[in-house]
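In this section we walk through a basic example: taking a raw amino acid sequence and producing a predicted 3D structure, encoded as discrete structure tokens. The instruction is simple. Fold the sequence below.
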Amino acid sequence: MNAPLLSIVVIFHNMRREAKRTLLSLSTVYQQGIDLQEYEVIAIDNGSDRPLDPEMVQSLGPQFRYHFHATDSVSPVDALNLGGRLAQGKFIALIVDGARMASPGLLRATINALRLSETPVICSLSTAIDCLIFQPLPNHPGQDFWEDFRPNAAGCACRSRVLKL
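The resulting token sequence is shown next.
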């Protein structure tokens, strides 16, 4: 398989039931107008007590890959960075909450939008930002994309969403 245009990194933690639904919604069985060569899905299990079944993930198509990230951390940041390093696509989509369903035309619309600009940044919205798509900078290979959670003045953890360049 040639390098895809889009790599979709999905993070899961203790959500076997939700993972199957989420991943199915990213497959060519559910997505409309998309070719499996255009994208890959990297499912990262972030230290679950009951990890995802690798065979279930890979059964969804040759564009699906599974990785278990052994960690005791509650933060998804290391798993996101692992997925970014494993990604083969020109663009990377990060889905932090693996309990989301993609609309049937989301991937086609995303691929179309990626072709509108040399350096697009695209996000999909729900009650919060669920998916962010960007192009890693070529002169920063292997760099982490996300910083870890930082407590704010009130002591609450907030996502930094800052690229480490």
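Looking at the output, two observations stand out. The helical segments are 16-25, 54-58, 77-86, 106-114. The CA atoms of residues 13 and 48 lie 5 Å apart. In the next section we compare this with other chains.
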